[in-house]
Amino acid sequence: MFGDNTGMKLSLKDIALAIDGEIIGDSSLEIHGVASFEDAGPGEITFASDSKFLKRLHSSRAGAVVVPPDLDFPYIGANTKREECNLSSHNDQQHENYQQKNHQQESSQHKKNQQEYYQNEDTYGGNGESENHNDSASIVYPAIVKAENPKRQFFRIVAMFHPPLKPSESIASGVVIGKDFVAGKQLTLESRVTVCDGVTLGHRVHIMSGAYIGDNVVMGDDVVIKPNVTIMGNTKIGSRVVIHPGTVIGSDGFGFTPDLERGHEKIPHAGYVEIGDDVEIGACNTIDRGTFGKTLISKGVKTDNLVHIAHNVTIGENSLIVAQVGIAGSTTIGNRVIIAGKAGISGHLKIGDGAIVGPGAGVLGDVKPGEIVSGIPEMPHKIWLKVAKILPRLPELRKKILAIEKKLSILER
């Protein structure tokens, strides 16, 4: 959960210093909030990191925009209402000397830059009509902050305006706590939490309303368990883990043996789930315990909402699993793998390090490290792009093939 610092104001200089950015514009500009590129208005800051938005900088209503450090665009220094301030040097005298030295050059270049900017539609998103932009004094551009990885730096700024709320140390009335409970400092247990026997919690653990923590669960420091999460017995959770509402960790796997007389007989699942440090599990995930041994979610893994991970699956470090992915039992996912939305991974497979599985893919075989696959069954992504173009034409191609076959049969007579 995050706070809302309504009324908070920061100078652009303070923001640039916090993200090691370089300002082009008014360093004293007051920023009172953050917003998306489309919605940002005066006094708000946003970011632009790809061409879709960079070519529309001239139309932004934002007070300031965070952009890549190597961006070079024509209106730098053009607006006389803004001053250039290079905070990377933090040297005011150097800035003053720079301004004096370059003032004439910037002024003479101004009109040329403005004309090129608005006449070049392909490069800068202009409409090719410059008659409304002859007077530079009428154009107010957003201030610019150049910084490495604008998206990351922008969300650092978001955290400045919306810092995480720190819960007060407390155990609400009605919380059920079992035997042999061990907890670190600054524990927060909200209403209707159930903590079973033999549970060990680290420092600054926050468990929200309605959560269930099974027997012998172990958690590290700074763990946040959101409302109505179920964590079944023997689960091991590292530090700085966030688990979002409605998720179930450690449920039985889907294991049955067929029997002609008894039907499907359940296989007992005696294993557990282990979750590494710095993992974030989305809402309504289901992660099954191992049949024997563990289901492993390694450190740095992030899962979206509605993900299912079956028994004895291993997810490698820093992998990303997008919404509605299903991974069948005993499959091993490597490090830094990306599995896009609605993909399905069959059981007992190996997905190599750095592989990418496209959206909606059905993976029936192993995927090599670094390979990009899409489609059903999975195939190299470039091939899938060709297949996808052909698929809508299949009815038409079928008609043509049938017509050719008919002509051939006539000729053969």
Automatic annotation (TrEMBL):
The gene is lpxD. InterPro entries: Hexapep, Hexapep_transf_CS, LpxD, Trimer_LpxA-like_sf, UDP_GlcNAc_AcTrfase_non-rep. This is UDP-3-O-acylglucosamine N-acyltransferase. Pfam families: Hexapep, LpxD. Homotrimer. Residues 29-72 form the UDP-3-O-[3-hydroxymyristoyl] glucosamine N-acyltransferase non-repeat region domain. Coiled coil: none annotated. The keyword Zinc does not apply. Keywords: Acyltransferase, Lipid A biosynthesis, Lipid biosynthesis, Lipid metabolism, Repeat, Transferase. Gene3D superfamilies: Hexapeptide repeat proteins (2.160.10.10), MurE/MurF, N-terminal domain (3.40.1390.10). Pathway: Bacterial outer membrane biogenesis; LPS lipid A biosynthesis. Belongs to the transferase hexapeptide repeat family. LpxD subfamily. Residues 91-135 are annotated as: Disordered. Residues 91-107 have a biased composition (Polar residues). Catalyzes the N-acylation of UDP-3-O-acylglucosamine using 3-hydroxyacyl-ACP as the acyl donor. Is involved in the biosynthesis of lipid A, a phosphorylated glycolipid that anchors the lipopolysaccharide to the outer membrane of the cell. One of its GO terms (biological process) is lipid A biosynthetic process. The active site is at H311. SUPFAM superfamilies: Trimeric LpxA-like enzymes. NCBIfam families: lipid_A_lpxD, PRK00892.1. One of its GO terms (molecular function) is N-acyltransferase activity. GO terms for cellular component: membrane. Its EC number is 2.3.1.191. It catalyses: a UDP-3-O-[(3R)-3-hydroxyacyl]-alpha-D-glucosamine + a (3R)-hydroxyacyl-[ACP] = a UDP-2-N,3-O-bis[(3R)-3-hydroxyacyl]-alpha-D-glucosamine + holo-[ACP] + H(+). It comes from Desulfamplus magnetovallimortis.
